[in-house]
Amino acid sequence: MLFLGAAPFARAQEFLPNPSMEGPPRMNFPPAPWMNCGSLSSADTQPGQFGIARAAADNLTFIGLVARGADQFGPPLAGSAEGVGVFLLDTIKAGQEYDLTYSLSHEPGFSWEGIDFGNPCRLRVFIGEGECKKGREIHLSQPIDHYPWQEYTFRFTAPVQADFLIFEAAFEDEANPRSCNILLDAGRLRKSFEDEPTEPTDSVEVETDTICPAYLPNAFSPNSDGRNDTFRAYLACEPGSFHLSVFDRWGGKVFESKDPDEGWDGRVQGEPAPAGLYAFVLEYAFGNGESAREYGEVALLR
Question: Which domains, and CATH codes, for the chain?
């Protein structure tokens, strides 16, 4: 099994449905078609549950998993772990090499009803045939103790044919199981080194200094903790002109800026705006008279 850095793929076959793990945030329900494959309780669709208010690694939501240690639980809960699984879009073939990518994080302050789940978990991965069937374990991660999202990719040769994949929380130390949590987002499962033909290019040459991509986060949490407190655009160049507008779900403009360094603090006329989805439009000019327009949604989390 070989660990790799994140690698680009050109329209390669994707085996995971809903790989971004999007769904309505709610307790005890993973986002469809992901399903509960753990014991005694189910994963949560985050953020918004148990005080977790961070932005997702990709798009709007992610999955939260816990394991219950003997330090705080007795039988039958002690030793139980939450897991999620999904039917694959195509069958994994025994002997074929695959790359599995996901983003992981850990919430050190995670607690519920006085029970501390703040220890780091590992992530265990299984494949099998049939709903929640753990045919073979293919991976056990290192303990995940970092708060920022981090992407991991590992390569494996499928030991068996499989149509189902399971992610499960696992204790950092099985001999001394302590209650823990792990957050999961942005999955990707593809054949290793899979390449598909690229689209033919035309003969027009584009000067690299005219390329000016924009990045806008998909969520922010204006709680003055110094992380993701404002929604703003990040450009790869100094724009000649800039106009960012944010709208509520009724189409009312709640924020407007012509300064790339100015972001929305989540307030409307000095009052906190309600949590939810807001639409944005970004228009900017750059280079030798080129211009771009970006549309999208951002989640305001509280």
Answer: 2-191 (2.60.120.260), 208-300 (2.60.40.1220)
Following DSSP, what letter does each residue of 56-118 receive, concatenated? Answer: PSSSS-EEEEEE--TTT--TTTTT-B-EEEEEEEEEEPTT-EEEEEEEEE--TT-EETTEE--
pLDDT attached to residue 12: 60
Which residue type, as a one-letter code, is found at position 291? S
Which of 86, 79, 73, 74 lies closest to 34, judged by CA? Answer: 86
Picking from 24, 91, 98, the residue whose alpha carbon sits closest to that of residue 63 is: 24
The whole-number pLDDT of residue 217 equals 83
* Tens-place pLDDT, residues 163-183: 999 999 999 998 899 999 999
Q: What is the mean pLDDT of residues 105-124?
A: 90
Burial 31-66 (b: 16+ CB within 10 A, else e): beebbbbbbebbbbbbbbbbebbbbbbbbbbbbbbb
Q: What is the pLDDT of residue 202?
A: 31
- How many other CB atoms sit within 10 Å of the CB of residue 27? 14
pLDDT higher than threshold 70 for residue 14: yes
Query: What is the rounded CA–CA span in Å between residue 55 and residue 25?
Result: 12
Distance CA 228, CA 3 (A): 30
Q: pTM of this prediction?
A: 0.63
Instruction: Judge contact between 187 and 125, C-beta under 8 A.
Output: no
Query: Which of 255 and 214 is assigned the larger pLDDT?
Result: 255
State both tokens at 157: 């040769």
What backbone torsions phi and psi does residue 291 show, to the nearest 5 degrees? Answer: -140, 160
Nearest CA to 124 out of 96, 162, 165 is that of 165
